[in-house]
Amino acid sequence: DTQGETSEGITPVNTRDIFASSLNEGMKADLDLEFSHYIGKTELNVMASARYSDHDTRSAQNSHYDFTAKGTEPLDQLRTGSGMKRDLTLGAGATAKTGLTKTLTIGAGYELSYSSLKEENVATLDNTADYANSFTSLHHAFDNTVSLSATWKLPSGLSVRPKVELSFKHENIDYNRGA
Fold first, then answer.
1. pLDDT of 162-172, one tens digit each?
2. What is the DSSP string of 38-94?
């Protein structure tokens, strides 16, 4: 038994769950592609990827409350909920690498990614919409990255590999509680 407060604001003596049930379903898919090609001493690479996941959940919980206040009848409450989550990520990029000399190689690259995450939860309390526990959320993100790199082979057998990356990110989140 646990102590808690009902939606009416009355503190019960004890609480117990009579029934609780949950069902979760989902799927996930991934795709990766990469192509490479040489033009003379220059290696070109093109990459693409896609990721998607889909998740749904449904739940129900029936709780019983006993009270100490005189004239207050025991209370049964049914809470139900359904939720969904959709996640999509797309990416693409290209790199080029070429040897300028036997000891110096330079490279450049660009990557772009987009992601979208949508979540929704709808709750009810005794078959009435429970807006305080319901929400919708939508998140979008764009990432861009440019890179420059080099490999310099030293006579001692060591290599020096500097790399510079510049990234730009844009995100937007729309969240609504009580939906």
1. 999 999 999 99
2. EETTEEEEEEEEEEEEEEEEEEEEEEEEE--STTPPPEEEEEEEEEEEEEEEEEEEE
